[in-house]
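Dear support,

I submitted the protein below through the web form. The confirmation email said the job was done, but the results page showed an empty box. After a refresh the structure appeared. I'm attaching both so you can tell me whether what I see now is the final result or a partial one.
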Amino acid sequence: MWSSRLMFVLAAAGSAVGLGNIWRFPYIAGANGGGSFVLVYLLCIAIIGIPIMTSEILLGRAGRQSPIHSMRDLARQSGASPMWQLIGWMGALAGFMILSFYGVIAGWAMAYIVSSAQGTFTGVDAAQATAIFNGFIGDPFEVVAWQTVFMVMTVVIVARGVGEGIETAVKYLMPALFILLIALVVYAMFSGHFMEGVRFLFSFHRGELGWDGVLMAMGQAFFTLSLGMAAIMTYGAYMPKDASIVGTATTIALLDTLVAVLAALVIFPLVFANGLESSSGPGLMFVTLPLAFGHMTGGQIFGTVFFILVTFAAVTSSISIMEPAVAWLVERLYVPRKWAAIVVGGVAWALGLGTAFSFNIWSDVTILPGKSFFDTMDFVSNNVMLPLGGMLIALFAGWFLDAKIRNDELALSPGMFAIWRVLVRFVAPAAVFVVFVMTFV
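What the results page shows now:
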């Protein structure tokens, strides 16, 4: 059990807050009309994210086991097919795949803490910033070294258990993350271009938001909350009985959205102050921003703090991604948690070597047509397994879960329950299905 509702909120918010908030959200908002994208994103959080998160927490707390065993027992209690336990298997597998490449990208962020602190980016131009990044990811030994450091950190935290490990970590990391983020926003306010960033983020540029942008907003709302990978279901299993599931899910979604918006308010003023491109894609974090840091007063300190922030966000997400597989091993094989964490972390690290090598010695190797090892892992987990998992979670909770279990866990007024049921039975699954299908069109 978490020691309190607050600790569950911090842990689940830590799971949701990750690289997607600080890196992906700003650049896709920049590429899709700023405020128009943000509005659609917020609507998707409300009608897709919160209902599915509520369902996932509900299933976790009702099952009180690892996702695989929880879904097996809940299906049996509800008189439903035992095949529903595939939700747990698929979520745990998707999370495992994500963890393998997440550790590599998080390792990049850790490496950039050191580079920023050493003043590597001071006075560099665009070509030099690009060369530094390409040189770093092109060195397999350095990339694997930082991947290893990050994965060891994650394993140590998870091995210590829910109370001494995960809860202790998020108790310090999440407040530190918010303090660092707010400090960076305050710093950005004095950049001279803060209001330009605010106007860009909250002004409506409808002509720049197409159907693809709407789909990206739906996908971002879904993925940013860590839905469909069994992490939230696992954390829900440790949730106190007296905590409100809907209230907690709403709080987590609001915190996650707040981090994404604050990160954009840090990044856009920097981009505009240096005449850079707001929609520069994945290179925004590792090329564009270091270039901006290198040409601003106090940029060496600012850049170091920024990459510490990114690392904190990555750690709180990675421990939640690892937990479902560890919980299953402890339950199924009765192995000590320490050894379960080492096994899961070790296998994820080994699988992550494929991602680490995708940018250097295996750069010409493709798995799916035209996709490197990293691109394949990313596509299969994020574009196939997570949407399917989220959609099935909503359908099971809305249509098949025993009514008494559902009502006891949610404890909603008739009006609120009716709204939740419509969203989770019809709206959220349909929206996720659209995103899933359009991925392949």
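Response: this is the final, complete result; the empty box was a page-load delay. The two ends are 44 Å apart (CA to CA).
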